[in-house]
Amino acid sequence: MPQVAPHDPFFRVASVPAFTHPLLAGLAAGRYAAVRVPGLLSPERCEEILTALEHRTFDSYGKARVQPPVMRFGVGISDHMAQGGVADGYWAALEGHRRAWRDLGLSFDPFAACRQALGAHWPGGVAVGRRGGRELGDGVAREPNQGFLVHFDDASREYTEDLLDVPLIGQFAFNLYLSVPPSGGETVLWRHRWQPEDEAYRLPASYGYDEAVVRGAESLEITPRVGEALLIDPRFFHAVRPSRGARRVALGFAVGLASSGQLVTWA
Asked: Where in the sequence is the domain holding 127, given as residue range(s)?
């Protein structure tokens, strides 16, 4: 008989009507790899944001580090890393980010709406994270039409000291899809977390790794849907496949579970 690959029953995706306390706690505890909430934002609100962004200039993440290029509207803190910390220039760039989002003239704050949905059933609530008492960015609009390479996200490894004023005991990545392509654009997660020997697969001067780093690891694939929110454990290696036929635009930010019990976000 053919051998069946072993399956970890905790490496799974929960599709639910809302983010609940048990599901978020389960994601933090490793009982899920991802939680998705269809229809968190209405098609009308997604279209309002897309229309406002239509004639705005998207910048790319640092091209020396992020190839193929990923476009974004807003400021990402990852472009302002300096010797394991945050460069002073980040704060001036963040002021420009806030003006740019205000100038869109939206009828609502999309990042506040996402935070409200995320923390509605979480006892500790949710807030934008702070560093040195100053509020960090609340989110960006990302357009990875050529995909994201295989990588992981873990602030405890990326920064020499705590990124936020409160220590983190868990980390998630949040995406809300505004537009999706007819094919491609899937998020792929592998049941593999960083190990020191993985650095042999890191691509030169890049955030990403050769896909051989996850060879043989169990994986799952998530196809994006307009208006859907996806929360993943980004400490698993993950990637985004290239889009085909249309733009893939999503609101995105990082989420930390603080030692205080509060959920804190940053971008």
From this structure: 13-266
Report DSSP state, residue 149.
E
**Are residues 104 and 52 in contact, defined by beta-carbon separation less than 8 angstroms?**
yes
The answer to whether 74 and 141 have CB atoms below 8 angstroms apart is: yes
CATH code (residue 89)? 2.60.120.620
CB-CB neighbours of 54 under 10 Å = 7
Number of domains in the chain: 1
Find tokens 């979480």 and name the residue.
122
- Residues 206/69, Cβ–Cβ less than 8 Å: no
Q: Is-above-0.85 flag for pTM?
A: yes
The single residue listed with the structure tokens 């476009």 is 71
Query: Residue 56 falls within a domain, yes or no?
Result: yes
Instruction: Give per-10-residue mean pLDDT for the chain (267 aa).
Output: 77 97 96 98 98 95 90 94 91 96 98 97 96 97 97 94 94 98 97 98 96 97 98 98 96 97 97
Q: What is the DSSP string of 50-86?
A: HHHHTTSPPEES-TTTSSS--EEES--GGGGEETTEE
Q: Which of 229, 237, 252, 199 is nearest to 61 (CA)?
A: 252
Nearest-angstrom CA–CA distance, 152 and 243: 20
